[in-house]
Amino acid sequence: MRLRVDRGLSDEARLTPAGERILAAASTLFYAHGIRTVGVDTIAAAADVTKKTLYDRFGSKDRLIAAYLERRNRVWHAFLDDQLAARKPGTPEEVILALFGALTDWVAGSRNGCGFINASVELAAPDHPAMPVIVGQKQWMRSEFKAQAELAGLADAGELADRLLLLHEGALVSYRVAAMADATEVASRAAADMLASWPRI
């Protein structure tokens, strides 16, 4: 069972080799050290390009930040597709729980937590080019929870989706900020309990 995702077309498909090196370097550095602390000089040096090349390819650091998050979003969707293919959930409820199970595997290799949440803290301006990517990623998760709840015939799917999203995102924050190593497992159990007791239409 695949998720309802439209990855669309991206300028990334037209990146030059230098552009690819810049984006790869920026992605590693931004996630590891934070967006604001990493300057374009550091990124250019890591990518073995000039600062002019960086600006020629991406226009500004802000646009590069947006490209970093767009790529991370595509990686996340591909990861979820692979997880569902491996887990083979048979019902919509099982899809929801598989999404929580996938989160556990995701954070196991992501010591700094959610790159989107981290970026939202650093990028306070609502008109930053990366904000639509951040908001869109979280809205997509809610929409997927809602769609699966509707397929399952669960009542008030929007309310259920809100609660599931709070569990999902709360687990990410607790994992990173509260150093709660089993946050995603706790959230998964809470989601299972919620689904078991939720009324049906």
UniProtKB/TrEMBL annotation:
Signal peptide: none annotated. Residues 16-76 form the HTH tetR-type domain. Keywords: DNA-binding. Residues 39-58 bind DNA. GO terms for molecular function: DNA-binding transcription factor activity; transcription cis-regulatory region binding. InterPro entries: Homeodomain-like_sf, HTH-type_TetR-like_transc_reg, HTH_TetR, Tet_transcr_reg_TetR-rel_C_sf. It comes from the Bacteria. This is TetR/AcrR family transcriptional regulator. The lineage of its organism: Bacteria, Bacillati, Actinomycetota, Actinomycetes, Propionibacteriales.
